[in-house]
Amino acid sequence: MLSFDCAGVRVDIHGPVQGSAPLIVLNTFEHEGEHVYELCQEAGCPPLRLAAISALEWDCDLIPWEAPAPFAGRPPYQAGAAAYLKRLKEIIVPEIHNSLTGTPKFTGLAGYSLGGLFALYAACSGSPFTHFASASGSLWYPGFADYLSRANCPDSVKHVYLSLGDKEAATRNRVLRQVECATRRTLSCLQQRGIDCVFVAERGGHNTQCDERMARALRWLAERP
Description:
The protein is built from seven helices and eight strands; from the N terminus they run E-E-E-H-E-H-H-E-H-E-H-E-H-E-H. The protein is of the alpha/beta class and 225 residues long. The protein starts with a strand and ends with a helix.
């Protein structure tokens, strides 16, 4: 594993440093990148390089705009996604590429929960990525489905993976229970734009087998052309 600090985050690169295997950037909540990569290997995933990013300000760096938190007693979300995406594009991703030998087949972006929300925000905001995965993404985020319907996704967006647990919408929380409707609306919106998309219905709630769900998403991306 190759590790380094860059622009305020920690980067751990799993997989071959040399060659043309795809590179997927994964925003992580803690340090689950190694486990996710191991699960990919166990599942027979094609060769890939996984750049797991940690030490993020989770409730800021991945947030597209300010909004009240849907949980009692929690402070409002702070908008940091635009600034973090700028760091990714201009500093972090170039540094990751510089640490590798050989040009990756493609560069993708993936995330779980708020990380999945950020992946789709990046897809619509112009980024160095072509393949995207939002596993149990927080697409309930206020205003995001409307934003996506209005945004002009660049032609560079080729493939998008969406997943959601079949019990995630079964909640009394009026904000979170919109997640299934928002995810299916997102799928339809992307498909109408001619983007290759898939939606996978997982079993369980939001915190069920998170790493396994993420590994399945990465395998799908790695199998794309």
